[in-house]
Amino acid sequence: MQVVIKPSKTELGAEAARIGAEAIRDAIAARGEAVIVVATGASQFEMLERLVAAEGIDWSKVTAFHLDEYVGLPADHPASFRRYLAERFVTPLGGRVRFVPVDGDAGDPAAEAKRLGERIGNRPIDVCFAGIGENCHLAFNDPPADFETEEPFIVVTLDEACRRQQLGEGWFPSLEDVPATAISMSVRQIAKAARVVLSVPDARKAEAVRHAVEGPVTPDYPASILQQHPDCVLLLDPASASQLSGRHG
Question: Which pTM does this prediction carry?
Answer without folding.
Answer: 0.93
